[in-house]
Design brief:
Shape: globular
Oligomer: single chain
Structural class: alpha/beta
Order of helices and strands: EHEHEHEHEHEHHEEHHEEHE
Number of strands: 11
Number of helices: 10
């Protein structure tokens, strides 16, 4: 096989439990066959999902939804970014190609797309400036809002328009936000963000207010439109690459979750120094905890010296864990309300 598609799936069935637990390997075989080990709210093999937001996290979420067996996974972003994002997901060797309906396909064929694996799903990039593309979100059963920045993934006017455009079929919405629990946050964490790592989540007042406002509006829309909203909370986002280079490999589960992620191009895109701490983070900390409620805490007085730590640290969330939690929040019966995702060594 040509090296086109780094296959991965982050598994997180313990999202359905009220206690905190790691979910590295609980659902892997079942997810690839399009089933879940708990009662389902959405049935992946029959469901159409829209991912909304910018950054590496939405790309990871799109891939996770695909390998979890969702029938159709859509992602809205400007057309000029489609090819770049495809390479981040599938590797530098991937040349952007679509079939007659706009679904991503391998360059060798115009009919057999990435859905040719055991999941049977399809992937499609939508151009946000194309009215026909935007209209195609009608009939979506689920929607996921997420992004890399500590701010709403899109302006509320865009979010509201897309929620309305999905129509009455929309049943579940998952939203990635930040932890607002104040334990472990304060002056030192804020200083660490300014001096050591600008991506640290420090509970900036304006950012907290904007995120809470967005959450409230999505939840209010859910009451109005009759769909459920689940909020997953993260801290400082880290990692997200180190993906397998074998496309649609049947034996992918044997390599373990540490081989799932975006292509190596992701590490180059986020590299800030000679030492690529996102790469090292994925090597050391590829697992995660999922805990019911807003119970995350910051790094406290140690944050300044652990700003770029690749170990399991309070206040950190791996992107792969965050993506997995969002996807399974759509289908797990017990995944209602809010959950905190925290990184775990493994």
């Amino acid at each position: 096989m040509s090296k086109l598609f780094p296959v991965w799936i982050l598994v997180c069935v313990l999202l359905c439990l009220s206690s905190s637990a790691a979910f590295k390997s609980q659902l892997l075989p079942a997810a690839r066959s399009g089933t879940l080990l708990s009662a389902s709210r959405l049935h992946p093999q029959d469901s159409k999902v829209l991912v909304v937001g910018l950054g590496a996290l939405p790309l990871l979420t799109m891939k996770t939804a695909f390998f979890a067996g969702y029938k159709e996974v859509l992602y809205i972003l400007p057309e000029v970014q489609h090819a770049k994002c495809a390479k981040l997901m599938f590797g530098d060797d991937y040349q952007m190609a679509t079939d007659g309906d706009g679904y991503l396909v391998t360059p060798e064929t115009s009919s057999e797309g990435f859905g040719a694996n055991s999941c049977g799903g399809r992937l499609k990039f939508l151009d946000g400036s194309n009215s026909e593309d935007v209209a195609s979100v009608e009939g979506c059963d689920g929607m996921i809002f997420c992004g890399d920045e500590p701010s709403p993934p899109v302006p509320w006017s865009v979010a509201e328009y897309l929620l309305d455009a999905c129509g009455p079929s929309l049943k579940q919405v998952a939203l990635n936000s930040k932890t607002f629990n104040e334990e472990g946050y304060g002056f030192v964490v804020k200083a660490a963000r300014k001096t050591a790592n600008k991506n640290i989540w420090d509970q900036d007042g304006k950012e907290v207010a904007a995120l809470k406002d967005f959450e409230g509006k999505v939840k209010g829309k859910g009451v109005e439109g009759g769909f459920d909203v689940t909020v997953t909370r993260s801290g400082t986002l880290k990692g997200g690459g180190w993906g397998s280079t074998d496309p649609l490999a049947d034996d992918v589960p044997s390599v373990g979750p540490e081989a799932y992620g975006l292509s190596d191009g992701f590490y180059e895109a986020v590299k800030r120094d000679i030492v690529n701490f996102n790469l090292l983070f994925d090597c050391e900390t590829s697992d995660c905890y999922v805990m019911r409620g807003d119970v995350g805490r910051g790094g406290g007085n140690a944050q300044i010296v652990k700003a770029n730590s690749v170990k399991e640290e309070a206040g950190d969330t791996g992107r792969k864990g965050a993506a997995g939690a969002l996807v399974y929040a759509l289908a797990c019966e017990a995944a209602q309300g809010e959950f905190t995702v925290r990184s775990k060594a493994g």
